[in-house]
Each structure stands twice: as structure tokens, then as C-alpha cells.
Model the fold of this input.
Amino acid sequence: MCGRGDSPLRTALAADVGSKRGVRYSAENVSVQPGGKPVIGKFVSAVMNPGYPIYESQIEYQGGVAVPYGYVETPSGFALDLDALAASVTPRTVAIFYNNYQNPLGAQSTRQEMEAVAELAIANDLWVLSDDAYYEMRYGGEPLCIVNLPGMQERTAILYTCSKRFAMTGWRLGAAIGPKEVIDVFNKLNTNAESCTTHFIQHALVDAIPGDTSGPDAIVATLRARRDAAVAGLNAIDGISIAAPESTFYLFPNVSKVMERKGLTDINDLMRGALEAVDVSFCTRKHFGRPQPGKENNFIRLAYSGISVADIEVGLQRLKGYFEAA
Done:
């Protein structure tokens, strides 16, 4: 289904619309939308700025310049490259996209790291989009949000989604939460894009929020077992070492030594080789935005959100055989 819509629905729409207009369409000609209005803006986006709508293309479509910032590997996971982040801010910088507890790294900020981001935003009078999709997906401790820091609530919009906390991926319900002057603009855009979010789904969330006592805990407990199995399986592969992330359901191992052993220089060759040789699929660093100059792409991303512990163990045993072969 994903972004295209349900296959049976797309097939039915293709037949219905095509037959009534004397033309032929297939399911591949149909993209299901949350209403008719989104088609207008998305058509303009499609013909003026084709591409995958991640942060970079969204910024550049609006006439901005997307400046990626990086992370560094540490024994406990990934940490923000704060020096590089600070160096990238110029007088023309408008906002920081801050993705704590994030895909693909599973990275989380310490309070000190978050305070450094806040200080940078305040000193340069920047807006912040706090992408909090995985805020509840933590395996220990209390989550942190940058709006809790002094001077940040009035300059921060929170990206909220039900997909992770309530496992409501297909229901397509989320929210922007932030200063009124920004939210008022969101509401005007909503009117001309989606028109409104499906009402029965909104009512479902109203009932879900006060009763949300054990649901996320049960989800996180299941994910913890999968995480532990995946981390153990990866660390059993010669040339890979990865710390267990304390949030999300992603792993981002460095496979540089694996590629060196196999004589590969293109991460896509490793990805295709694994799929063809052992039927294991994964994303690579290249799926997640432009790298900074000089940064290697020798990372892969594994997700354990929709796979059993048994299947994780089988898959990583297969991957071990492929990765360790010269």
C-alpha cells in the first residue's frame, strides 16, 4: 500500500475513471489522496520539482538551501557533530530541523547536546522543527524534548505522529504543535491541501490518548526483544560493531570493513549482492539525503519494527555468511 494507496482501490478507480472517460488506466496510474485538494499542490510539486519529498527537496522547492549536518560514531552510538552544525549557520539561516530519537541512526541527544542545539538556535534567532516521531519509542529513561529548555517553546514546532506511538501507520494521522503564529499558517495550508483530516480517525485518537497506559509499553517491550536479537546478530559478524540504541527501531551499522573484505567500493553493490545471494534486503546511507563532503556512505539501515525475533536471527545469520565471504 504505502504512499500509493491500496492496490484493490487503485485498480477499481482506474477501471471506473477510465471507462467513463473512454481511456484506459491501470493501478499504476492512480495515487490515492486524503481528499481532492491535495492533488493541486502535489501536481505542481510533481511537474516543477520531481524527487523524493524528504527535508532537502521540501526546503529547496520553497526556494531555500538545505544544509545537511552530520553525526559522529561513538562507542555508545551516534552523536551530533556540534562544531560542524554551528559552522553551517549563516546570517541567512532560518531554521534547524532537529530529529532526536531518529531514523535511520536511532540516535538520541544527551541533555547537554540538546542544550547546545538550543543555544545555537537562540543565539542566531532560528526556528526549530522538532521531529518527535519516535518520542515514545524509548527503552529506558525519560524522553527529552527541546521545547522543555528555556527560550525554546516560542521558537519550536513539534512534528507529532500517531504512526509509532499507537502503531497507526496506515491511518495517516499526525499534527503540528507550536506557536500560534506558525500554526495559523498550517491551518490555512490545510484548507487548500487536505481540506481536513478524516474525522472518524480524529475521534479515535481522542479516545486513545487518555486510555494510553499500556499500549506503548507493550510495543516497546516487543521491540526491545527484537533490538537485542538484531544487535547480537550484527555484532556476531566479523567487521561489524554496533551499540544498542536506546530509542526507535532502527540500526545503522558501519559496513566499511565488510566492503573492504569483499572488494566493493559502491554500497549499492553490497545491497544488491545481499538481496541476490541470501534474500536479505536493507537500505543504505544513500537513501537518507545527501552526505556531507568527504563523508563515506558505508552504512546500512536495518529496521526491526515488523519482523519476529526468529526471522531476525535467520536473516542475520544469512547476512553473516554473505558479509564474511571474501
About this structure: The radius of gyration is 22 Å. The longest helix spans residues 215-235. The beta strands are 71-74, 77-80, 95-98, 127-131, 156-161, 174-177, 250-251, 283-284, 300-303. Residues 215-324 form a domain with the Aspartate Aminotransferase, domain 1 fold (CATH 3.90.1150.10).
